[in-house]
Design goal:
Length: 286
């Protein structure tokens, strides 16, 4: 078993054991706790990028004013930093909600595709659901891209939100994280629908098939006057700062510049687009 998966299993087991011990010994509550929304994001080490999370939480509170709102980060590496005391993993967050007497939890997934992180989140939710004296019901919303309808909707929103100063002879490249998980097919699917709307819009990924080399070749074939690099990620975090806009020669910005193509950038993530956040939040109602 891979170390990261082993660590996930151990954390889930320890959290469940701790929750069971607590509920078995906790005194009866005078009144039931309110239902909760647990917002689950990958997380980011870039503090400025976290402003997008505040905006997302605001929309969630407006949509569900009667529910407790909590957060969890799914990236294990980000939970091991010095600031861990202010962050909880999904296992820790659900265990805490259970000990507080919450019976119904809606998990809002802020993932872009149903990859490994998303499926681990679903498994964690199933582990905690229905335990004696624990959380009675846990639902998990779909990620942003999860079916044909959602792909079309996201493509249309992205096309409407292109940079105002962009001209039709300039290419726009939305760059996502990428994955080796089968869910990576959602990226070329999005590319297909984006091309229907504008042939100079491309989708790339930091990892896997739609990588820098592949996208650079496709863009050069179009001979654009310039390219706009836009993160296809929930927040404009480390991948945006370094892999996309970094000064190192293997960044997307430097690669296109070296190819003689002018580069323009948009340093905002998907979570700063109100329409896209609405799609995520509406997933809680499905």
């Amino acid at each position: 078993m891979r170390p990261d998966k082993l660590w996930t299993c151990l954390k889930t087991l320890l959290a469940v054991m701790g929750m069971v011990v607590f509920v078995a010994t906790a005194p009866a509550r005078a009144a039931p706790a309110k239902d909760a929304v647990l917002i689950a994001a990958f997380g980011t080490s870039v503090k400025k990028a976290r402003d997008a999370y505040a905006g997302i939480e605001k929309q969630v509170r407006l949509a569900f004013p009667d529910r407790e709102i909590r957060w969890a980060w799914t990236a294990h590496s980000l939970l091991k930093t010095d600031e861990k005391s202010s962050r909880l993993s999904p296992q820790e967050a659900l265990a805490k909600l259970a000990t507080e007497g919450v019976k119904n939890v809606s998990v809002l997934s802020l993932h872009v595709i149903p990859g490994a992180e998303y499926h681990n989140l679903v498994k964690t939710a199933r582990t905690f659901e229905g335990l004696p004296k624990g959380i009675r019901s846990i639902t998990v919303s779909p990620p942003l891209l999860h079916d044909t309808g959602s792909i079309k909707a996201v493509a249309e929103i992205l096309a409407r939100g292109l940079p105002e100063k962009r001209t039709r002879d300039e290419a726009v490249i939305f760059v996502g994280h990428g994955t080796h998980h089968p869910a990576g097919v959602y990226y070329p699917a999005l590319q297909y629908y984006m091309h229907q709307l504008d042939p100079n819009i491309f989708v790339g990924t930091v990892e896997d098939n739609l990588n820098l080399e592949t996208v650079l070749a496709a863009v050069r074939a179009k001979s654009p006057r310039a390219v706009w690099l836009v993160p296809l990620m929930t927040v404009a975090g480390d991948h945006t700062v370094n892999d996309l806009f970094g000064a190192q020669k293997d960044s997307w910005r430097q690669a296109f510049t070296s190819a003689g193509i002018q580069v323009k950038t948009v340093a905002s993530g998907l979570g700063e687009n109100t329409e896209l956040v609405r799609l995520w939040v509406n997933g809680l109602r499905q």
